[in-house]
Amino acid sequence: MHRLVQLSTRAWLNDQQKTPKYKVRALKAVTDLFPEVPDKDESLCQQLISHVQAVVAFTYDGSENRKVKAKLLHYAALYESAQGGFRTAEAWMEEAVEIRKDELGEGISIQYTA
User: Fold this and answer.
1) pTM value?
2) How many CA atoms, within 13 angstroms, populate the side-chain half-sphere of residue 50?
3) Could you say which of 4, 35, 92, 94 is the most buried, measured as most Cβ atoms within 10 Å of its Cβ?
4) CA gap 100, 68 in Å, rounded
5) Which of 3, 73, 61 is CA-nearest to residue 31?
6) 93: which residues sit within 8 A by CB, 6+ positions away?
7) Among 77, 70, 93, 82, which Cα is nearest to 42's?
8) Are 102 and 66 in contact (CB under 8 A)?
9) How far is CA 32 from CA 26, 27, 28, 68, in A?
10) How far apart, in whole angstroms, are the C-alpha atoms of residue 42 and residue 20?
């Protein structure tokens, strides 16, 4: 989509106060499409990574939306790590862990393996 169209659409959504609703829809759509194991479909991950970057930049309200964001961050971090993007992978994994700690409680043990 052309950048000017994107800008106009964003402005319209803000005017209509629909931005939060569509941010959540975008987050869920990208999360549903992103492979849990990036090695299975590397070309799909490559196509989706710019969308991942866009949706994880937003802050989401609600426990369920935050958990979905953590899930996407986890999957995308595994992909980034496999591609050599270790700084991005580390930042995304740390954010995923923080969200899960906030949502599940400090006493929960969280292990990630790459």
Assistant:
1) 0.80
2) 2
3) 92
4) 10
5) 73
6) 73, 74, 77, 112
7) 82
8) yes
9) 10, 9, 6, 9
10) 30
Contacts of 90 (CB under 8 A, 6+ apart): 77
| Phi and psi torsions of 101, nearest 5° | -65, -45
**Residue 19, both tokens:** 């931005």
Q: Where do the structural domains in the chain lie, given as residue ranges?
A: 3-104
Q: pLDDT tens, 6-35?
A: 666 667 656 666 667 888 999 999 999 999
Token reading at 65: 């939306």
Residue position matching structure tokens 């990574």: 49
Q: Which DSSP state fits 40?
A: G
Give, in degrees to the nearest 5, the angle at Cα 24 between 18 and 29.
125
pLDDT digits (tens, 9 = 90+) for 66-93: 999 999 999 999 999 999 999 999 999 9
